[in-house]
Model the fold of this input.
Amino acid sequence: PPAAESVFKFGLKTNVVGWGFGMMNVAAEVDVIPHLSVHIPFYYSGGYDCFSPTIKFRGVVLQPEVRYYPWLKNQCNEGFFAGAHFGLGWYNYALNGDYRIQDFGGNRPAYGGGLSVGYKTRFKKHPSWGVEFAVGAGVYNVKYDIFYNEVNGPYYKKGIQKTWFGIDNAAVSFFYDIDIKKKGGKR
Done:
């Protein structure tokens, strides 16, 4: 008999919530096997101040995740999913207060991980396109410096280390999927 053929997806997406925070972003999701995918988002906002030198939200974030889809829809990883992720984040932010916070030495990212849940669906008229809703929470080890919030402000405190718990992902993402056909089975 001929080899069995299955369809896996490779998707590109962007998170509009991230854009709302001024963070350019792109993500890829690849189906590994039915029910399981790998999702790799990348966020970046750098080099600019928001309206004034004392308001800024600069960052680079990478948050790879393994996702499990308990129910397949049309032989695709779609619908409800649960995931486990790891995260790295470099940051520099100020909210027009007296202080600015930056990762320790400007090169020590926050790191940790967490769990997420979400729902992914396709548009009926254009099934390669769709939308995904997700939220996640995690635990991170953070080490940072505090500066006076002025241009080239001096240190206020150095090397503060904490464990942070909270929401680490909120997404409303639009995606485009590309089918990847794989042959398998008996020959």
